[in-house]
Amino acid sequence: MALLRRLRERGGETVYAPEFHREVEESYAGSIAVPPDVPLVITEGNYLLLDEGPWSAVRDLLDEAWFLAPDGDERVARLVERHVRFGKSPDEAREWVRRSDERNAALVAPGRARADVVVLGDPV
């Protein structure tokens, strides 16, 4: 949330944002420079529209929020494929999706009501 505040309130200074590296499942701090003349910043994250705890304050820091709502089967297939691509066996990937990713999907689903735009299906 501090990063979103810095981006919104920057006074002519470059703001540095982290970059997530899926291959090591870690963010590298200060990897992305956002100069003051950048007119549009796009951020993404599962919890940005969550209406609980500290996450509930994020929505007010966003000018516009979009919620991507792909078909459930397509979402699962993409997640499994991504986990396999980054080292899990197909069985491990399916189990991870079932136990972790699907819980997250259920947790964030109500956030679509806080979005300005809901994109249904496969926008690609």
Would you give an account of this structure?
The protein is globular. It has helices at 2-9, 72-85, 90-108; strands at residues 15-21, 26-34, 66-69, 117-120. It is α+β, with helices and mostly antiparallel strands. The chain has 3 helices and 4 strands, in the order H-E-E-E-H-H-E. The protein folds into 2 domains: 1-43, no CATH class; 46-55 and 65-124, no CATH class. The strands form 2 sheets. A two-stranded antiparallel ribbon has the order 1-2. Helix 2 (72-85) crosses helix 3. 33% of the residues lie in helices and 19% in strands. Strand 1 (15-21) and strand 2 form a beta hairpin.
Give a summary of the structure in a few sentences.
It comes from Rhodococcus opacus (strain B4). The chain has 124 residues and is of the alpha+beta class. The chain is built from three helices and four strands; from the N terminus they run H-E-E-E-H-H-E.
The description of the largest β-sheet is: 2 strands, antiparallel
Biggest β-sheet: strands ordered side by side in the sheet = 1-2
Cα-to-Cα separation, first versus last residue = 29 Å
The chain-level mean pLDDT equals: 93
The count of β-strands is 4
Helix content: 25-40%
Strand content: 15-25%
Low-confidence stretches: none
Shape: globular
The assigned structural class equals alpha+beta
Q: What pattern of helices and strands is seen along the backbone? A: HEEEHHE
Radius of gyration: 16 Å
Question: Number of helix segments?
Answer: 3
How many domains? The number is 2
